């Protein structure tokens, strides 16, 4: 019995020593684990630090590269903007030059259209349309101021012979020289127009005395009777007949004044040519008012 108790006591001692050993092992393991954790933490912290330092270096390097790239982009943009501005300036300059040229061509075309509409292409004198407009203005002015003006219709004698025998080019040359001679006898306030063919019509503004119109007609007839040197060294001698009418004695509209001068012209031709004739007065053609006697629209 005592032996059994003794054995049990030994077993309990063995168990106690085993428990103590386990506890020691556990404590040692815990301490070792703590040391491992601490070491691991230290290593991790050092690794993180190194990584952070490396990352910081990488970021700094990347920042330098980005700054360099931004600088290059800005430089390229400056070059591109300078090039764009240069191109814009060049294009604007070209556009301005094109607009100036277009405006010049437009004005030239406008002058040409005006020339064709209101002036005779050959002699550069006003044409029939321009003359009739001027006559309407003269009628209004003379009616308002109580003045008169004269209409001289002139027809060249022997022009058809020159044109048929020496050719149209020579005939045209003669018409241009005739236009210059007539113009040289007129004042700035007067006008001569080519009525058509070899006929010319003159407006003598503010011509109250018939003698003034007769004097101009006589001078023009004398000038046109002189020899003309034409193309091809041709020398020709022609003449002119003139019919004269006065506003308002012979009419208060352009048509009536021209018709009266035309009748007087044919009377001058019947009288032997190279002379002038004044139209017979028309008693009924006295202006009352421009509202009662509307100006005729003649093309």
Characterise the protein shown here.
This protein is α+β, with helices and mostly antiparallel strands. It has 2 domains: 1-118; 128-278, Reverse transcriptase/Diguanylate cyclase domain (Alpha-Beta Plaits, 2-Layer Sandwich), CATH 3.30.70. The protein contains 6 helices and 7 strands. The strands form 2 sheets. A 5-stranded mixed β-sheet has the order 2-3-1-6-7, sandwiched between helices. A two-stranded antiparallel sheet has the order 4-5. Strand 4 (228-229) and strand 5 form a beta hairpin. Helix 3 (159-166) packs antiparallel against helix 4. The longest helix has 117 residues, at 2-118. It starts with a helix and ends in a 21-residue tail after the last strand. The model is unreliable at 288-299 (pLDDT under 50).
In short:
With 299 residues, the protein is an alpha+beta fold. It has helices at 2-118, 128-145, 159-166, 168-184, 210-224, 254-270, and strands at residues 149-157, 191-196, 199-204, 228-229, 235-236, 239-247, 276-278. It folds into 2 domains: 1-118; 128-278, Alpha-Beta Plaits (2-Layer Sandwich).
